[in-house]
Structures are given as C-alpha cells and as structure tokens.
Amino acid sequence: MSTMLLYVQIETQLIYNLKKRQMKKTTPWAQFTEYIQKNVALYQFRNGIPLTTAATANFTRGELATALPKIPYMVNIILAGYDKGTGPSLYYIDYIASLHKLDKAAFGYGSYFALSMMDRHYRRGMTVEEAIELVDKCITEIRSRLVIAPPNFVIKIVDKDGAREFAWRESIKDAPTA
Amino acid sequence: MSIFEYNGSALVAMVGKNCFAIASDRRLGVQLQTIATDFQKIYKIHDKLFIGLAGLATDTQTLYQRLVFRHKLYQLREERDMKPETFASLVSALLYEKRFGPYFCQPVIAGLGDEDKPFICTMDSIGAKELAKDFVVAGTASESLYGACESMFKPDMEAEELFETISQALLSSVDRDCLSGWGGHVYLVTPTEVTERILKGRMD
Asked: Entry's CDD domains (chain A) (predicted)?
C-alpha cells in the first residue's frame, strides 16, 4: 500500500489560505493538486499498482516543468508519502519545478521560522509524538513572530496506515468564509 | 539578480595524465536561502563520460532527463556508448534548439575518448562550445575557480595529485562565493576505474 499527502501553497496569497480552501475549484493549487491526485488514481486503475511516492514526485515535477515556459502553475509543493519497503519520504518541489528529497521542508513567509526551528530541534528517527511536538513549536513560533500569521493550522500524519488529518490548531473558531 | 544565480553552483573539470576529474559543490539554494546540502550536479552518462550542469536547478534536471533519453536511444541504435565529442555536440544541439528561450544551464562535459584520451568542454546556455586542454569551470563561483585553477593546475598530473588539486581549487573557490559551497563532490576517472568522493567543507 502506498499513501500520499500533498501540501500545496500558492506563491503570493498565503494569508487567504484558509478562506480560499472553501472555494476549492477556483484556486490554482487546489486545481493542480486535484489534477495530480486524479492522475495518480487513474494510473492505479489502469495498471493495478499504485505509483510510489518517488514516481508521483517525478510526475508532478514533469507537469510543473512542461507548464513552466507556457503558463506556469504558481504552486509550491511538499509531497510526503509512505511506501512499503522504502518507508516514509518527503519531496520538495517548488513552483519552478526543482525537485529534491529532503528530511524537512517549509514554504512561504512562515518557512523562515519553521526552518529555523527544525534546524535546531529536528533529529532523524523521531517518534510521531516528538514530531508533533516539533510541529507545534513551529506553529507557536510562526504565530508569535510572523506579522501576517494565518490563524488556523492543520496537522496531518502519513504513515503505514495511510494519510490522515491528525488535529487542528485554531486560534479563530468558525472563521467566516467569503 | 541573474536567473543563472538563483540556485547557486560551482563546477570544475580538470585533465591529468590519461585521466580527468570533475567536481562540484553540493548546495541547493533559493537565492540566499539554503534548501539542501546534498544536491547532485554531476551526472554519469556512461562509465567514461560525465556531465556537470550549473545554473537553474529545474533546467539542469530537465536537461539531464532529456540527455539520458537521447543517450539511451543512441545506445539502442548504435549498440555502443557515445564518444565525449559526439555527446558534447548533442548537448550543444539540444541547447541551441531552444535558442530564443534557453535552458538556463552552463554544462561541463568530461570524458575519456578513443585510446582513453581525456576530453573536457564547457558551453554557454545556447550551446556555444568552449574546448580546453587543461581545465574548465562553470557556475556562480566560476570567477574564483578560474583564479584557483590558473594558479594550482599543472599539466600531466597523476590521478591522486589531480584529485588533491581539483579538491583544493574547489574548496578555496566556494569560500569566496555566497551561493555555492556546503561540501563538494569529486569524480576521478582513469581508464580502469571511477572514484567518487564526497568532500566536507565550510558550512556557511
């Protein structure tokens, strides 16, 4: 079994991240991720075997790279997946389609704080509990240091049991959506 | 800032006695921010042919994939590996194909040709070849690499001395360039073996 999770973020409109989530079909990153998701599903239907995380990352990069000289998708992607045999993996794909396998990644204005926190506290082979604690540290740092910090965060987990939503870190409940 | 300096890179190739060495830094950055310190810039085409790609990371990856594809087709059709000279012409042609919307890459090609004669060559982003007998450089640290190589290079070095020279040239050059560094990657190729070494460098 192989499961994946896409974290996608648009270049400029980070602040409106959550509001735009409601209008799924209209945002570039939602359109692009849906396109990737559907193609990965199609591959599985046709061939009976799922794409690995590495294959998905390379497919995604290919799509971004071919669109780049025409009409670029302005989306940055962190692709996390779990494959039997290879274990968990994380891929950094930015909007100009540079692909690289990493241990930890972040995008956007908050990334400066998140990356600093992870450089200091991340270790290889952390448990899920330790990882969540570190994610919370990053969120706290972004909330306290970033002027235009988004109010709400989702934490998702990808492991051998699949990709799932773990928790929300909300500072505004029932945020009004446009 | 130039698009060639977006990710940062340092590439160098040197010729020795019946051997050559090709080396690069390992940084992947986005302008001044470092994303990774284990990024591959030198690729093996076959046992005696290597290509280093400096410049915009996305274009180096795309170009590398196209080159592998073309080389595989060549191998199937001709049932042999490409000569370095032929491969250099292929790279040049692929780059010039995109004359008015180029890949933002500066390739360095190094290989052993007929009778294990070393061949090194570099190119600009639209495929203008520059052949050299001694050494070639590319990337954001190219200016300091020219200086280092000019003073350290000696003709007809043996493999181990060549490795020492290229490593010292690379490590001293990247210290004068903000966009490259974080260790080095060196391939030393002789007619009988290929040695790959990772260099530790200044982490700033």
From this structure: proteasome_beta_type_2
Domains of chain A by residue range: 2-174
CB-based contact, A67 to chain B, within 8 Å = no
- How much is the pTM? 0.90
Q: Exposure of B77 by Cβ count < 10 A (0-12 exposed, 13-18 middle, 19+ buried)?
A: exposed
**Interface contact B62-A96, CB threshold 8 A:** no
A81 secondary structure, DSSP code = E
- Nearest-by-Cβ selection for A100 from B28, B56, B101: B28
Measured between alpha carbons, how far is A6 from A33 in angstroms, rounded to an integer?
Answer: 7
pLDDT digit string, tens, across residues A95-109: 999 999 999 999 999
Pairing of strands B129-132, B118-123: antiparallel
pLDDT at A1: 40
pLDDT > 70? residue A8: no
Of A96, A102, A105, Cβ closest to residue B58: A96
Q: Nearest by CB to B35, which of A65, A69, A100?
A: A100
Q: Between vectors from CA A148 to CA A142 and to CA A149, what angle results, nearest 5°?
A: 35
The tens digit of pLDDT for each residue in B86-119 reads: 999 999 999 999 999 999 999 999 999 999 999 9
- Topology of the domain comprising A2-174: Glutamine Phosphoribosylpyrophosphate, subunit 1, domain 1 (3.60.20)
Residue B58 forms contact with A (CB below 8 Å) = yes
Interchain pair A98, B57: CB under 8 A: yes
Q: Which of residues 118-157 of A touch B (CB under 8 A)?
A: none
Extended strands (E) in B57-193? 105-112, 118-123, 129-132, 135-139, 184-189
